[in-house]
Specification:
This protein is mainly beta. The protein is 10% helix and 34% strand. The protein has 3 helices and 10 strands.
Length: 154
């Protein structure tokens, strides 16, 4: 018996998939990319299409506190990860700790009130925690897309 569907894939292996063998490719975070792919060297900051926009709400010594925590970013952290997320515009910075509503950021010095774009470690988790995408092109909101499968992980 010949298989009608031969499925495979992961984001790191997607570029090596053999289209003469596979009939479908399911590469996970491939369309958005995330901080895990950045850490693995499979994506550069220019490849990343999803970030959480958050505000620095306070500063304590060399640490910044932003108003996006595990309820927005998710709490996944691979063994190779250098934090719980990375800042798209400040590649040297790391999210070093999370509470439910706040993130601790180190490696960058910004004033309170600064807006930062945090790339979640695992975009799948972050997407499942949101009700919609706000689609931005060149700094302008061009659409809002509902996440129909929100909370549907079973």
């Amino acid at each position: 018996m010949t298989a009608r569907i031969v499925s495979g894939g992961s984001t790191p292996s997607a570029e090596f998939a053999d289209a003469t063998v596979l009939t479908e490719l399911r590469p996970g975070v491939y369309v958005f990319r995330d901080a895990q792919q950045w850490e693995l060297g499979m994506s550069s900051p220019d490849d990343i299409a999803l970030a959480v926009h958050t505000t620095v709400v306070s500063r304590h010594g060399g640490r910044l506190i932003a108003d996006a925590g595990s309820k927005v970013l998710g709490a996944d952290r691979g063994s190779y990860s250098t934090g719980f997320g990375r800042l798209l515009d400040h590649p040297e910075a790391r999210v070093t700790a999370l509470s439910e509503h706040h993130a601790t950021i180190t490696g960058v010095d910004l004033p309170a009130g600064s807006q930062v774009r945090v790339v979640p470690n695992h975009v799948c988790t972050a997407v499942n925690l949101a009700n919609e995408y706000v689609v931005v092109r060149d700094g302008v909101v061009v659409g809002r897309w509902p996440i129909d499968a929100r909370g549907a992980n079973t």
